[in-house]
Amino acid sequence: MKISIFDVAKRAGVSVVTVSRVLNDSPTVRENNRQKVRQAIKELDYRPNSAARSLARGKTGVIGLTLTTLQDSLFDGIVKCVNDALKEHGYFLALSIGPDTSDSDWGEGSNFLYQEDRVDGIIVLSPLKEENDVLELKRKKIPFVLVDNQLEDMSASVVNVDNYMGGLEATRHLLSLGHTKIAHIAGPELYRSARERKRGYIDAMAEAGHPPFLLVDSDFDIRSGFDIAKSWLAEGDRPTAVFAADDFIALGVIEAFRDAGLHVPRDLSVIGYDDQAFSSAIHPRLTTVRQPSEGMAQEAVKLLLKIVNGTQKRNASVKLEPKLIVRESTASPDGRTLEIDR
Amino acid sequence: MKISIFDVAKRAGVSVVTVSRVLNDSPTVRENNRQKVRQAIKELDYRPNSAARSLARGKTGVIGLTLTTLQDSLFDGIVKCVNDALKEHGYFLALSIGPDTSDSDWGEGSNFLYQEDRVDGIIVLSPLKEENDVLELKRKKIPFVLVDNQLEDMSASVVNVDNYMGGLEATRHLLSLGHTKIAHIAGPELYRSARERKRGYIDAMAEAGHPPFLLVDSDFDIRSGFDIAKSWLAEGDRPTAVFAADDFIALGVIEAFRDAGLHVPRDLSVIGYDDQAFSSAIHPRLTTVRQPSEGMAQEAVKLLLKIVNGTQKRNASVKLEPKLIVRESTASPDGRTLEIDR
DNA sequence: CTGAAAGCGCTTACAG
DNA sequence: CTGAAAGCGCTTACAG
C-alpha cells in the first residue's frame, strides 16, 4: 500500500494538519513535533503525492518550456539555466519540443502543453509562429513569457537580446582591425535576430563611412557558409573580413577557405555569432558574439514567476546585451594582429 | 472562475460521469450525448484539471528523463524521440538535467524528480553513478529503465547499443580500405561505451592479424583530438588511419592535420563515432558510426510503459546495433578511393 | 501551537 | 447507456 500523510501523522502521533505544516515549512509547529514528523517521514520513506498537493493548492508547480530544437548551444544553455532557476523556486520543468519546420501541420492544433492545465506558466523559446501561440495562451489565460521572439510588436512579456547591438559590435570589431572590405552573410529574414544583426552591420559600416561591401542571404548552417565562401574564391574582389550571422555559417566559411589552401585569419577574418560549444574548440578558435543565455533564462523565470504569482501586472520587456568574444579567427587585413600559438 | 467538469455537465444537460466518460473516450456513451458534451467543452473552452485526474487515477501521466547534458546529438535525438513516443501514448516528458561532473555534490541528495512522486516512471540516460540511482529508484519503487548505462552487470531494465560491434565495424572499414597502421583514440575508461569501442578496435586488428598499431586515451572533445594528432605529426611512423572514439575527437584530428598542411583523407583516414549534427556538414564529411537514437528512444519508452502498466515483470534488456556511415573522411592509404566532388 | 472539517476536480465501482 | 456516491491525498480557513 502506498503510504499517505495519514500514516505519517499516526506514526508521529500528531494530526495530518501538523504533518502538512512541516511539509510546507510552516513556522507554527513546535520543534518537538517537527522532529517527530521528520522522523516518521524518514522511517516511512514518505513522499507527498504531488497530484493531491496540486489539486489542493490550485497550482501544479510545473512550468512548461516550448522549443523546436535542442541542437543549439544557445537553447541548450537556456534550457539548462531555466531548469536550475526553476528548481531553486521549487518548480519543475516540462519540455515540449515542437517540429523544426515552421510550416508543419502543428500550426493548427495547440501545443500539448496547453491541452490540460498541467502547467502554471509557459516559457516560449524562439517562437516561429508566435501570433498563434500568443493568441492561444492569452485566450486560455495561461501565464507566459516569450524569449527571443521574432515579431517586433507583440503585446506580451518578452525577454530578448539586443541583436542590433551585436551586429554593430561585430562589425565595429572588424573595422577597428582596419578592414573595410567587410562582408555580411545574413540569416533568414524570418528571424528577427537575423534582421537586426544585418541592420547592425549596415549601420556600423555607414558609421565608418562605408557602404556595405557585400551582403548575402543564407541559412543558419555550415554548408551554406561553405558554398557562399566558395563562390567568393572564384571572384576577384573578395572581402578581407566577414561577419557571419551565426557560428555555423562562420565554420563553413573557414572550411571553404582552408579547403582552397587559404588561411584564417591571414587571408580572411571571420566573426560568428552565438558562441556555440564548438566555437572555442575549433582551429582557429572563433571570434564571435555571445548571447547571455544564463541571463535570459533567469530573467524569463523571474518574470514568469512574477506573472504567475500576480505580482507582475502589465507586460514587461527585458532586453539584454550580447558580448563580443575575441579569439583567433580575426586579425588585421595584413594578418599581423595575430597573437596566437600555432 | 475556473470552469470545472460540473459546468460542462450542466451546460450539456448530463451528469459529470458522462462528461468524464467522453473525456476518456469511453465507448458507452450515446452518440447524441457525446456530441452535446463535446459542444459544451468547446463553448466553455474547458480543459480538465490534470492534478485532479492524476489524483483520481493514481497516475500522473508524466515520465521523467534524467541526463547530464543536451549538448550532444545522440542525447538530443533520444530526448526528441522519447518526447514524441511519450506524446503518442498520452504521457508528458519532464526533464531533469543533472550536473555534468560525476563527482559533484549531487551524488548524495536524490534527483529532484524522485522527491515527490510526480512521475510514473523514469528513463535514466547515460548514468555515471548508476549504482546510486538504481538503488534509490528501486527502494522508492519507481519504475525505470536505463539507457546507455555504463556498468556491465546492472540488474535492471536496460537498452543499449552494441559499442563493441561499432568499434569492430569502424576498424574493419579501415582495414578493408587497405590500412594497417590504424590508431585508436579511446574515450575515458569511465564510459562503458569507450571501453567497448576500444575492445572492438583491438579485436578487429587481431582478426586481421595485426597488433594494435597505436592506442591512446583521450577525452571526448575536439581539443584532445587536436593535441594528440599534433603529437603524431612530430613523430616518424605515424598512422595512416585513425578510429576516433567520437566525432569531436575526430574533428580535432582533422583540424590538426589540416593545420599542418596535410589532407584528410589523403594523408590520414579518419572515422568518428556518434554521427553528430556537424559530422555530415563539415569538410570532409565525416565517416562515422551512428547510434540508433530513434530506436533507443522507442525501445526505452516501450519497455518503461510496460513496466509501468505491470505487463513487464522481470528485467528486460534490449541491445541495438549501430550503423557505419561511410562518407568522405576515409579512403585507401594512397588516397585513391576518393570519390568526392571537391 | 494544534486539529476537525470542508473542499480541490476528477474517476471508479455500483446500481439502475 | 446513465448517474449518485465515495474516494484519491493533500491544504486551507476556522476554532480553540
TrEMBL record, chains A, B:
Domain of life of the organism encoding this protein: Bacteria
Keyword Nucleotide-binding set for record: no
GO molecular function: DNA-binding transcription factor activity; transcription cis-regulatory region binding
Domain HTH lacI-type: 3-57
Keywords assigned: DNA-binding, Transcription, Transcription regulation
Pfam family for this entry, one: Peripla_BP_3
PROSITE patterns: HTH_LACI_1, HTH_LACI_2
Protein name: LacI family transcriptional regulator
Species in which this protein is naturally found: Paenibacillus chitinolyticus
Lineage of source species: Bacteria, Bacillati, Bacillota, Bacilli, Bacillales
